[in-house]
Model the fold of this input.
Amino acid sequence: MKSNKLIFIIEDEDDIAELISVNLRKSFYQALIFNNANDALLMLSKVLPDLIILDLMLPDINGLDFCSQIKNQTKFASIPVVMVTARGSEEDIIRGLEFGAYDYITKPFAPKVLIARINNILKRVTITEDKNIEQNILSFNNIKIDTQKREISIEDKVLDLTFLEFQLIYFLAQKPGMVLTRDQIIEHTRGQNHNITNRSIDVQIVTLRKKMLPWDYIETVRGVGYRFKEML
Done:
């Protein structure tokens, strides 16, 4: 039983790359290993994977820079990236998610846990694709959210947002007027299996509000979470 799902493994430690590859193949995924980012970028121009497993400490391009590069290109932006790295501080995790990672796993890791997370991510991505939302643009008063271009504009001014910031405001905007807890926001913007905290959500909301000034679409519900205002 061979899956048509292709996963890129970008990892310069041969034993770790092989460990991941073996477990992916056991789970019926196809896998390609790259020991540097440039080779992976070259292959991306020819083949689009369904998911990328990315180490941060690579010999040529920093993993964060690599992630930023592909997330800023429309052709690659929707490819889920799972960072697998020895850097495990909260600040590192937040940075990884801000640069566009879908999930963040610290070394050493259990291969079965990694596979379970990949299964979960690809299931979510498939469900989203199957739904194939025809209405690519959400509009509220003077704000427009283009889900296809992954752009948010207010009065025709395009906001400069990180991958995570877009995910946050898009999730809130899909449920205008509804109070969403921090845990709900974490689950639906990144999935359940990562270490992002409630505090980091608060930090992202503060940054978002600054970028949206003088407009204030996001309302804090003290002790609960946030909601997207139906009316300004």
Summary: The first helix runs from residue 14 to 26. DSSP finds eight helices and twelve strands in the chain. Confidence is low (pLDDT under 50) at residues 130-134. The longest strand covers residues 6-10.
